[in-house]
Amino acid sequence: METKISSIIAEIGVNHNGDLGLARELVSASVYAGADFAKFQLFNPCKLIRGRGSLAEYQKSSGFLDQRAMLEKYSLDFDEFLELCDYGNTLGIKVIASVFSTWDLNRLMRAQPAIIKIPSGELFDQALLREVAALTDKVKIIFSSGM
Question: How far apart are CA 121 and CA 124, in angstroms?
Fold first, then answer.
């Protein structure tokens, strides 16, 4: 029996541009590429951004007026995320997500994920880290340090 010592995670993030059809295509492409997991970002723009949030310099040519408008366009709602999980299961790939708050984490746990990713920007969110620590017997955790 072959022992697998690593997994390949297809980083989809928000590259679906808020389009569920494109998100499904990216899950399919992840399977075709040989990935074991397809990872999205699960967040609620209203909980992630206080107020409207100004755009970063590189985002100003995007046509969006503020961060919240941009994130609202690029987010999937939780029912769409669950649909992607089901779709991935039919293709033999697990759909996982990065979470940005305890609220996101609690929603994600309803999907019974195999893995949860904590983005580098959330490494100092003590409330989120405490809740994640309580889940280590239920799910694998990935901590990003790339930011």
Answer: 8
Residue 112's H or E segment, with its range, is none
Question: What amino acid is encoded at 54 in this protein?
Answer: S
Bridge partners, 140 (sequence order): 115
Dihedral pair phi/psi, residue 60, rounded to 5°: -65, -25
Rounded distance between C-alpha atoms, residue 35 and residue 91, angstroms: 11
SS3 content of the chain, % helix, strand, coil (to 5): 45, 15, 40
**pLDDT tens digits, residue range 5-64?**
688 999 999 999 999 999 999 999 999 999 999 999 999 888 887 777 788 888 888 888
Q: Which two tokens stand for residue 41?
A: 């970002």
Query: Dihedral of the CA atoms 39, 45, 49, 50 (nearest 10)?
Result: -150
- The gap between the terminal CA atoms of the chain, to the nearest Å, is 38
How far apart CA 47 and CA 38 sit, in angstroms, is 24
**Beta carbons within 10 angstroms of residue 135's beta carbon:** 14
pTM above 0.85, yes or no: yes
- The reported pLDDT for the residue numbered 48 is 81
Tokens 């609202």, residue located: 72
